[in-house]
Write a structure and sequence with these properties.
Distance between the termini: 93 Å
Strand content: under 5%
Low-confidence stretches: none
Number of strands: 0
Structural class: mainly alpha
Helix content: 55-70%
Mean pLDDT: 79
Order of helices and strands: HHHH
Number of helices: 4
Shape: elongated
Radius of gyration: 28 Å
Length: 126
């Protein structure tokens, strides 16, 4: 007996590998080229999604599975969306800030030392 559903064309792994390499180059170029931050994030995440779909479909052979594979993706999708949202207050909003609040305190400290030295008739501190 020959099952028509079990016979399928073998994927061209070299072509898929080349596509993954091109996707990687695109994500590197998106990071190197001066783009607005939001555009850069969307580009890199879109390319990462395409790479993940290629790996899932051909290297993990999910392209040839039945529809139950979508049920397996539901918890992964929930975690993939939930983790960044859960970490956003701690990391996402403040991680890349260039402000250094200690410098404001240091300027106030120097000003206070200068006034104290003038008040006591001492030489100005360095």
């Amino acid at each position: 007996m020959h099952d028509d559903h079990s016979h399928h064309e073998h994927p061209k792994y070299a072509l898929i590998f080349a596509a993954l390499c091109v996707f990687t180059l695109i994500s590197i170029m998106a990071d190197v080229v001066q783009l607005p931050y939001a555009v850069k994030v969307v580009a890199v995440l879109s390319v990462a999604t395409c790479k993940a779909l290629c790996v899932l479909a051909w290297f993990m052979h999910l392209k040839f599975e039945r529809a139950w594979k979508y049920v397996l993706l539901a918890p992964t999708t929930i975690l993939a969306l939930g983790l960044p949202l859960a970490l956003m207050p701690d990391v996402g909003e403040h991680y890349y800030t260039q402000e250094v609040p200690q410098m404001d305190d240091y300027a106030e400290h120097l000003e206070h030392r200068k006034h104290a030295a003038e008040h006591h008739g001492e030489a100005e501190p360095e």
